[in-house]
Amino acid sequence: MADTLTKAAPATQRTGANPEPAPAPTVIADGVDIVYRVHGTGTSGRGAATAALGRILRRRKGGGDGTERGVRTVHAVRNISFTAYRGEAIGLIGTNGSGKSTLLKAVAGLLPVERGHIYTDGQPSLLGVNAALMNDLTGERNVHLGGLAMGMPREQVRERYQEIVDFSGINDKGDFISLPMRTYSSGMAARLRFSIGSAKDHDVLLIDEALATGDRSFQKRSEARIRALRERAGTVFLVSHNNKSIRDTCDRVLWLERGELRMDGPTAEVMREYERFTSA
Ligand SMILES: Nc1ncnc2c1ncn2[C@@H]1O[C@H](COP(=O)(O)OP(=O)(O)OP(=O)(O)O)[C@@H](O)[C@H]1O
């Protein structure tokens, strides 16, 4: 496994001629490749336990030529480089399986890179529809635990509790916040996750499809919040298949296709090309 390098990037750059501080880079991806290894393939229909035992025995026998039978690789991201700056909202687009979520997870430090490096200034936080909250705990407990897990002081979580609940709209149709999260619809759960995740100012906020869930009015609220988060501090990355959300929220777009960066530029330009590509 290769390592994901997380280093502080220079906070500002200045040129002699221009007294204005240059925009501060927050994320630098430098020639990044990401490869998944899928174990247990080619097991000829054997059960999972038998296949796992076989893998252990093969490993004990030694690596041989270094490749393991029954392991397949998926090269999900190929040689991607970009620099993101403070104050930018960057959309990540591409057809299914093009590597958007994979790249986002690597920026968050949750996946190792095979080649290249990712440098981040500040702590990236991944706010995905699958962000881990505890299904057996009430919404209320999850607000507190989620806030603490993001590093908010206990007092701040208490102060912002009501606002988090109100923003999520969970209690709009009754007292649902005191019920376990497993009783929520997928849309309700996603709204609460977004509401918790966005209650804190993030250096680098990574949002994976959170806006695809929730109804139109919640989507509008979320978009406004993303704009506010972006103004207050860091950089926002948004993965979405909703072209309108991308247009309304982002000023720059990275378009990935088959793991490669096909285009990186102003939203209008990239979206025009992408829509031409997807409608062809
Ligand atoms: N855990 C995994 N193990 C193996 N391969 C994976 C895994 N997760 C994703 N992949 C593969 O990596 C490639 C990129 O997937 P990824 O989820 O990053 O794409 P995406 O652009 O986010 O797709 P979508 O728009 O459908 O959500 C795909 O070929 C996918 O099959």
UniProtKB/TrEMBL annotation:
GO CC terms of this entry: membrane
Source organism superkingdom: Bacteria
Q: Which family does it belong to?
A: Belongs to the ABC transporter superfamily.
The protein in question is named: Putative Teichoic acids export ATP-binding protein TagH
Segment forming the signal sequence: none
Supply the InterPro entries for this chain. AAA+_ATPase, ABC_transporter-like_ATP-bd, ABC_transporter-like_CS, ABC_transpr_TagH-like, Bact_Polysacc_Export_ATP-bd, P-loop_NTPase
Q: Does the keyword Nucleotide-binding apply?
A: yes
ATP-binding as a keyword of this entry, yes or no, is yes
| Domain annotation ABC transporter: ranges | 51-280
Give a GO molecular function annotation for the protein: ABC-type transporter activity
According to its UniProt entry, this protein's organism is Streptomyces aurantiacus JA 4570
UniProt region (Disordered), positions on chain: 1-24
Q: Sorted alphabetically, which keywords does the UniProt record give?
A: ATP-binding, Nucleotide-binding, Transport
